[in-house]
TrEMBL record:
Gene3D superfamilies (UniProt xref): HUPs
Function: Catalyzes the formation of sulfite from adenosine 5'-phosphosulfate (APS) using thioredoxin as an electron donor.
Binding site for [4Fe-4S] cluster: 136-137, 218, 221
Name recorded for this polypeptide: Adenosine 5'-phosphosulfate reductase
Alphabetical list of InterPro entries matching this protein: PAPS/APS_Rdtase (IPR004511), PAPS_reduct_dom (IPR002500), Rossmann-like_a/b/a_fold (IPR014729)
Designated gene of the protein: cysH
Organism: Roseateles rivi
EC number: 1.8.4.10
Species classification: Bacteria, Pseudomonadati, Pseudomonadota, Betaproteobacteria, Burkholderiales
Length: 254
């Protein structure tokens, strides 16, 4: 069971911040931070301008952006605006530029493809079947991701082993199956590590994390989680599935 499942109160309980609830120093934290810094430096040395941070704007990715800035690495940052994100998520785009002077390139799905999908299947298609939900993810996420990564040799993600059973074997560096390296600098970090770093380095984060949403995606597909629920239980909660959209196919159990 993850730290989040152990520590999170039920939604509706007295308000507190995610930092107050989850940030704590644990043994080996400094070593894990040093490893993440080294992984990022080595990725930059190997790939240079071919390296990209693919940011979901979740807390892990905000930590990675902070690490890149602290290390002085000029790595490009990009994100996917699916057209269905929470306003709290999009609010991080100007926050990143204000804090670190880094502009995030935004990739959006093809408008006609979205309109066609909604016209054919309706606004609530994702609730109808896993196949339609994955098709929605394909239109809104996978197609723009392919454009995002087209000219890149490596991409940085916020994957951590603790996030789910499907990610329990995530290494720091792995092939993505498309001829690129996938860099996972926080692979061995705990939830407590993430929030301790946020606290000690004053990293901005999505306000929805304060509302018991550890994993935040599109608004129709994200809810708060309760005590004992898995880290990603609030994603596609109506499904019995691996809780993946296909962005990280190497860790997707079909």
């Amino acid at each position: 069971m993850s730290d989040f499942a152990t520590l999170s109160p039920l939604p509706g309980s007295p308000a507190s911040t995610a930092i107050a609830l989850y940030a704590r120093h644990t043994a080996g934290h400094e070593e894990r931070v040093a490893t993440a810094r080294r992984v990022l430096r080595q990725a930059h040395e190997q790939h240079g301008a071919g390296l990209l941070q693919s940011s979901s704007l979740g807390v892990e990715d905000m930590v990675i952006t902070a690490l890149l800035a602290q290390e002085g690495l000029p790595t490009d940052i990009a994100t996917l605006d699916t057209g269905a994100l929470h306003p709290q998520t999009l609010a991080l785009l100007p926050a990143i530029e204000a804090r670190w002077g880094r502009r995030v390139t935004v990739f959006a799905p093809a408008q006609e493809a979205v309109l066609s999908f909604v016209r054919d299947h309706g606004e609530r298609a994702m609730y109808e079947s896993i196949e339609l939900r994955k098709a929605c993810c394909g239109v809104r996420k996978l197609e723009p991701l392919s454009r995002m990564l087209a000219a890149r040799s490596a991409w940085i993600t916020g994957l951590r082993r603790e996030q789910s059973a499907n990610r329990a074997d995530v290494p720091h560096v792995e092939p993505d199956g498309q001829g690129r390296d996938k860099i996972n600098p926080l692979a061995d970090w705990s939830w407590a590590d993430v929030w301790h770093f946020v606290q000690t380095h004053d990293v901005p984060y999505n306000a929805l994390h304060d509302e018991f949403m550890p994993s935040i995606g599109c608004a129709p597909c994200t809810r708060a989680i309760a005590v004992g629920e898995d880290f990603r239980a609030g994603r596609w909660w109506w499904e019995e599935s691996a809780k993946e959209c296909g962005l990280h196919q190497t860790h997707h159990k079909n």
